[in-house]
Amino acid sequence: MSHFAVEFGHLDDLYVEPECQGKGIGKKTLIYLAQIAKEKDCARFEWWALKTNDSAIKFYLNIGAQKLDEISVFRLNQSQIENLAKDNKPMHGTSA
């Protein structure tokens, strides 16, 4: 099976209000999403956490998630998107 043909799940945001934390809501939510991922035969289920969010990182590690150090996240903000979109210079080694 091709690497690009594998289904995966991505959680964009999971936020539990501070007064509701520690009541199992986050874990129940992730269990539910993991069940969906299993039903869909997903090879992986991914999400991000800020490096400064120690309580979330500890929680994710405690439920068995693996912290990936080999991946860097890159982002363009709106003005950077506009600048890149209007850049029509050919890329090195291409004619486009």
Key features of this structure:
single chain, Diverse_Substrate_AcTransf, acyltransferase, disordered N terminus, 34% helix, transferase, two-stranded parallel ribbon, Acyl_CoA_acyltransferase, mainly alpha
Give an account of the 3D structure:
The protein has 96 residues and is mainly alpha-helical. The chain is 34% helix and 8% strand. It is built from three helices and two strands. The chain has helices at residues 25-39, 54-62, 78-86, and strands at 8-11, 44-47. The chain has a two-stranded parallel ribbon with strand order 1-2. The longest helix is centred in the middle third of the chain and has 15 residues, at 25-39. The relative contact order is 0.12. The model is unreliable at 1-5 (pLDDT under 50).
Question: What is Rg?
Answer: 18 Å
Helix content: 25-40%
Number of DSSP-assigned strands:
2
Termini Cα gap: 31 Å
Shape: elongated
**Please, how many helices?**
3
Q: Spans with pLDDT under 50 lasting ≥5 residues?
A: 1-5
**Sheet having the most strands:** 2 strands, parallel
Provide the succession of SSEs: EHEHH
Quick take:
The chain is mainly alpha-helical and 96 residues long. The chain has helices spanning 25-39, 54-62, 78-86, and strands spanning 8-11, 44-47. Helix content is 34%, strand content 8%.
Give the topology, please:
Layout: E1 8-11, H1 25-39, E2 44-47, H2 54-62, H3 78-86
Parallel strand pairs: 1-2
